[in-house]
Design goal:
The chain is α/β, with parallel strands linked by helices and 603 residues long. It is built from 18 helices and 10 strands. It has helices at residues 17-28, 37-70, 74-126, 129-134, 137-179, 182-229, 231-236, 240-293, 298-339, 400-407, 430-435, 451-455, 464-473, 477-482, 500-514, 530-544, 579-585, 588-602, and strands spanning 361-369, 376-384, 389-393, 415-420, 423-424, 437-440, 518-522, 548-552, 564-569, 572-577. A hairpin with a 2-residue loop joins strand 4 and strand 5 (423-424). The radius of gyration is 35 Å and the shape is elongated. The two termini are 48 Å apart.
Length: 603
């Protein structure tokens, strides 16, 4: 049954951090990432050790200054050298350990990104035809790309920036209170608290701006991809200027949103610098007064200043990190909305594998209306005996192709059943259903890959002899032999390097090579010239002989030998029978035949 559209309605992402955190850390517990857990533990330990060295290094430097200032004898010099060496080593380790950590953790983060992207791509591919017909491919790709990258952002910034910065702040507050006075700890904590509050406030405002910018970005990318993908149509109708204007309009919207984002970023950075400068001034002023009063030494003042600078250094990144985390949460929500979307057509629980034995197809009282349409199929019933060939004809828009889409279960009927060998296709696995079918559509879609890839797409393990036979049956042998690279020739985007007839024959070869139990032809020779059509029609006749076949035909002559012909008009089955019977009946089929015969005679 078709899913309720309300279930699949996408809510607006609000960028909440909690669900994003659960998503990220839940991902790290996935069985596929279990082997990386020792690396995760080492990365956490290295981060903690690095922060300890970052906090303690200024103390060594301050003690070195105090040792030098207290006396000038050799002992003081030796102490100063040792303390400066300790300071240099601790500073080095505070920087080196995070670098080692990042090198180790890169494999983990990329594994998590890959797992997320592949799983999301697989889920998007599993969604029903209706979803892909209404969703722009460029926008969908951006959702997957940004959502996957958000995993990397959240892992790095949360695990190795925000949490370690909080740990460093706690360690620094303890050291400041114990060594130099609790007043320094209070100033440090208040400064960081004010900085964090300001950052959160402005970032929430900026997230709304980024959300609007992302929407404009999706529209821009989708419009560009749509136009470039259909460039042949653009060229044919000479609408390059109009497409450029549409692209320019979309870019203008995106640019206005980008300007808002950049201006708010400038405000955020300025406010952060002011707060950090104010905190540093307060600490240095207090330390200076205490040195003047004799309760602190000059080296202590230096150490306090360096400790605060060490805290402020990651705080400078904190603003960027928080923005990325918030944006990552929005991107991850968009990804989760995609992943949580239910297919309109789904396998039932306990669906069995369909094993086609004979290939009988039966439509029982089928009615179906496309979403957004007022008309469709109405109470269609017919049976295709196993091994027989059935032709389906009728005016454009009568519902012929819809019958085929229902057979492939791209849609579920509103009422009625479709049976193959007596089994309801709604109760079997979709994969097994489609493995027993092969389709040659009116417009063959090819991948931007080699001829070999496209011909063997449904059967990549086919032998060279099997491929050669399929090429011969589709009258492609001479064409392939004429190409310098043969089957390794790339066909271009959507196969545009091939003519319409060549693409059609590649689609026919692909279907023949699959060797299906049921062959479906949707006006498969409509784009061929008369000579090529007659040649390919012979191959199709051979392919359909002894195999259950459903053939939608525009040229009635191509299905005149069918075992039965169905005539569809306005979604209803108005006539059925053999060619001679329908001609003698003098109905719609007879009129269509006479009209085509007259046109062919005039040509």
């Amino acid at each position: 049954m078709r899913a309720d559209s309300a279930i699949n309605k996408e809510p607006k992402a609000d960028g909440k951090i909690g669900p994003a955190l659960r998503r990220v850390f839940g991902l790290l517990l996935e069985p596929d990432l279990r082997k990386y857990r020792p690396i995760m533990a080492i990365a956490v330990i290295l981060t903690l050790i690095a922060k300890l060295f970052a906090v303690i290094s200024p103390v060594f430097f301050g003690d070195a200054v105090n040792a030098l200032a207290s006396q000038a004898d050799g002992v003081a010099v030796k102490s100063m050298i040792l303390l400066l060496a300790a300071w240099s080593l601790s500073r080095f380790l505070a920087v080196a350990f995070p670098q080692i950590r990042d090198g180790l953790f890169a494999e983990v983060s990329q594994a998590a990104v890959r797992l997320t992207a592949v799983n999301t791509f697989a889920h998007a591919s599993s969604l029903s035809l209706q979803f892909h017909l209404t969703r722009k491919a460029g926008s969908l790709n951006r959702v997957i790309e940004r959502g996957s990258n958000a995993i990397d952002y959240l892992l790095r910034f949360l695990a190795f920036n925000i949490v370690p910065t909080l740990i460093e702040l706690i360690l620094a507050a303890v050291v400041l209170a114990v060594r130099y006075g609790i007043g320094f700890s209070v100033i440090a904590v208040l400064t960081v608290g004010g900085y964090a509050a300001f950052t959160l406030w402005v970032t929430e405002w900026r997230v709304r701006q980024r959300r609007e910018m992302n929407k404009a970005d999706n529209d821009l990318r989708g419009r560009a991809l749509d136009s470039l993908t259909n460039f042949e149509t653009v060229k044919a109708f000479a609408t390059e200027e109009r497409e450029s204007e549409r692209f320019g309009e979309a870019y203008s919207v995106f640019s206005r949103q980008m300007v808002k984002v950049m201006r708010s970023l400038s405000f955020l950075n300025s406010g952060q610098e002011f707060l950090m400068g104010l905190g540093l001034f307060s600490v240095v002023l207090m330390a200076g007064m205490m040195v003047r009063a004799g309760s602190l030494q000059v080296g202590d003042m230096t150490a306090v200043m360096l400790i605060l600078l060490n805290i402020y250094r990651p705080l400078g990144i904190l603003g960027f990190a928080w923005r990325e985390i918030k944006q990552g949460a929005v991107d991850l929500e968009n990804l989760d909305q995609l992943v949580s979307r239910n297919p309109d057509v789904a396998d039932e629980d306990g669906a069995v594998e369909l094993k086609i034995r004979e290939g009988e197809v039966c439509f029982q009282n089928i009615s179906f209306i496309h979403e957004g349409r007022n008309d469709g199929l109405c109470n269609i019933s017919f049976t295709v005996p196993a091994g027989s060939k059935i032709g389906i004809v009728g005016p454009s828009g009568a519902g012929k192709s819809t019958i085929l889409k229902l057979l492939f279960r791209f849609y579920d009927p509103d009422s009625g059943r479709i049976l193959i060998d007596g089994e309801d296709i709604c109760k079997v696995q979709q994969k097994s259903l489609r493995q027993g079918l092969a389709l040659v559509p009116q417009e063959v879609a090819l991948f931007n890959d080699s001829l070999r890839f496209n011909v063997t797409y449904a059967r990549p393990d086919a032998s060279e002899q099997q491929i050669a036979k399929a090429l011969a049956d589709a009258h492609l042998t001479d064409f392939v032999a004429s190409l310098p690279d043969g089957l390794d020739t790339r066909v271009g985007e959507r196969g545009l390097k091939l003519s319409g007839g060549e693409k059609q024959r590649v689609g026919i070869a692909r279907a023949i090579l699959k060797n299906p139990a049921i062959l479906v032809l949707d006006e498969a020779t409509s784009s061929l010239d008369s000579e090529t059509e007659s040649e390919v029609q012979l191959a199709l006749n051979d392919a359909t002989r002894g195999r259950t076949s459903l053939v939608i035909a525009h040229r009635l002559s191509t299905i005149s030998d069918a075992d039965m012909i169905l005539v569809i008009e306005a979604g209803k089955l108005v006539e059925q029978g053999r060619h001679e019977e329908l001609i003698a009946r003098g109905g719609l089929y007879s009129r269509m035949w006479q009209r085509q015969s007259k046109q062919e005679f005039m040509v």
